[in-house]
Amino acid sequence: MPKRLFFPGPNKEVVELEGTNFFVKIETLPQPKHAQAFFILKDSEEECDVPEEIKCVDKTNNIENIKMPCTEYFLLTHLNKYEFYFNDIKKISLKPEPKSFLIQL
After folding, report:
1. Which of helix, strand or coil describes residue 16?
2. Which range marks the domain in which residue 79 is found?
3. CB under 8 Å to 64, separation ≥6 — which residues?
C-alpha cells in the first residue's frame, strides 16, 4: 500500500527497501517543499552512510540526484519525481502530488 509524505512538515515516513538490509527514512525539512532521504540499517535501526549500491534518480530532470556534499542524505524537492535503485533495480518511487509525495513500492 502506498504511503504519503505531507507538506508542510514536520513529517516522516520509513520505508523498507525489500531485498536489502536498509530502510529509507524520508522527512520534510523546515524549508518549504523540501525533504531529505537517508538510510537506516534494518538489524540495528541506526542511521548509516548512503550505501554504494543505492542510486537516487530525479526523473523530472532525468539526472542522477547525488547526495549532498559532506552529508549522508539526498535532498528532495517536492515538485520533482524520484526513483531509488538498489544495484540498478528500482525499489521505490516518489511521485509529487498536491501537498504530498506519494511513496510507491
Report:
1. strand
2. 3-104
3. 55, 56, 57, 58
pLDDT at 4: 92
Element (H, E) at 76: strand 74-77
Q: What three-state secondary structure class fits 102? A: strand
Counting every residue written for the chain, the total comes to 105
Q: Which amino acid is at 90?
A: K
Q: How many domains does the chain have?
A: 1
All cell numbers assigned to 12:
516522516
**Other CB atoms closer than 10 Å to residue 77's CB: what's the count?**
15
Q: Across residues 75-99, what is the average pLDDT?
A: 95
pLDDT > 90? residue 63: yes
